[in-house]
Design brief:
Blueprint lengths: L12 E7 L8 E7 L17 H14 L2 E7 L1 H7 L1 H14 L7 E5 L11 E4 L7 H24 L5 H4 L5 H10 L21
Helix pairs in contact: 1-4, 2-3
Length: about 200
């Protein structure tokens, strides 16, 4: 079953989502997508419910059909300076600002958002499983960030980023314990459980 195409017809709505909040390293990445009113695709869904191959195939579908799309990020340094929640807002605001078309309304995945862009918004809990534009944004953001972390895995082997893309898996934490942290690790995060603390 296709997700809802819009919250309110006859206005330009941009769906927004971010990925990487729960990771131990790397940026938080956000995307914003404006889909045409008549667009429908039964395969577009919450990116977490799709296979890697499905997500990668849908990227081209989304980009070629969207009225506008953009991807933005907040850096590790920004996450450590302003905290991950504020950095998530920052990344989403940047994604909206970079859209080629200014939306009249934002559909935000989650339960809170902050912006000074002057665009009204609705926060929708689990919105990536309800609205096509939010789901499309989640797909673009996840594919972009996963590919970024796989490239970083080549420069920083031993942390398992090629599969865990920075999330706190056992392999990732074992890598931190053996090799310490990289410049991409978020120093404001608890990188190891207390019983596994190592001097960095």
């Amino acid at each position: 079953m296709s997700l809802l195409p819009y919250l309110e017809i006859d206005r330009i709505e941009a769906g927004c989502d971010e990925v990487g909040r729960g990771c131990l390293c790397g940026p938080v990445v956000a995307a914003a997508v404006i889909l045409p009113i008549g667009f429908a695709n039964a395969f577009i869904n919450d990116s977490k419910k799709l296979t890697k191959g499905n997500r990668e195939e849908l990227v081209d579908v989304i980009k070629s059909n969207a009225l506008a799309w953009s991807i933005a990020q907040a850096s590790v340094e920004e996450i450590d300076r302003i905290n991950i929640l504020e950095a998530s807002y920052l990344a989403m605001n940047r994604a909206v600002e970079r859209l080629a078309q200014r939306p009249q309304h934002l559909l935000i995945d989650g339960n809170r958002f902050k912006t000074d862009l002057g665009i009204p918004f609705d926060c929708i809990v689990k919105g990536d499983g309800k609205f096509a534009s939010i789901a499309a944004a989640s797909i673009l953001a996840k594919v972009y960030r996963d590919e970024l972390m796989c490239r970083h895995a080549i420069d920083y082997p031993g942390y398992g980023w090629e599969t865990n893309v920075g999330y706190p898996t056992q392999a990732h934490r074992e890598g931190i314990g053996k090799m310490g942290i990289t410049p991409l690790h978020r120093k404001s995060f608890r990188l190891l459980p207390e019983q596994l603390e190592f001097p960095f």
